[in-house]
């Protein structure tokens, strides 16, 4: 493979401390990376999207100045061991156990990008406690319904073929460089040549780092058969949604509908970008997270007991707001 393309955020990344660690979670190894100062008073646990690994959230981590950011490779992706079955219940059990193994409490902010937004939302709905849930490019609506249903069906066929064909052919299809590049081009919105070259290089390097064909097929099925709206009624912590103006996977009206269903949600729409906020516009995304973290102090308890007996949906959307992030992006040559 060719030498890596220089990141637009190279100097910021070089100035950000990073440590690679691993831990046993239910008998399987999860690799994770800690960014930022080890003695930071605030921690963010960040979960990346489908077919990616921790590299995808490095730029947001670097922009969260002064915060310790923990980014694991999802089981079955990057270098983490796969789960026996990659369904949503297994991902929830893994994240909950990983959170506990690291000794994280409710003060740790939980963040998820894309497929990671489903994993973290399901986990919080199941009882994982956090003072703030952050969803970047959240999957806010079902992928098997509406205008994306046909494309989703085609993608299901692609992953199924990759899993059932003879191994050399199946892996060749799943890791085909041309197909990966088409996916990358479809998601990119930036016209900056340097940015485009770097994002394509990131996908070329890390988009095919999965443990086996079964894991990637099961994870894809999980990603398209679940969405954040499925868990909205059971999420009772403050939520920051960072959506994108031109996201082809979940449009802004669907993001607004999800925000209205959540008990306490703020929706920030980043202009001029699509599903790759974490690559193309990490600075405004991180700025929104830092601002909301400052405005969301730790709570004495989860608060679910205090709301016991409240009718479903009572008070929902009472604090939902929508703001627009700045399109200005600072890059370091």
UniProtKB/TrEMBL annotation:
Keywords for the protein's UniProt record, in alphabetical order? Hydrolase
Report biased composition (Low complexity) as residue ranges. 308-333
One Gene Ontology molecular-function label: hydrolase activity
- Xref: SUPFAM superfamilies: alpha/beta-Hydrolases (SSF53474)
Report which superkingdom the organism of origin falls in.
Bacteria
Cross-referenced InterPro entries: AB_hydrolase_1, AB_hydrolase_fold, AB_hydrolase_sf, Epox_hydrolase-like
Q: What is the protein name for this chain?
A: Alpha/beta hydrolase
Give the source species: Curtobacterium citreum
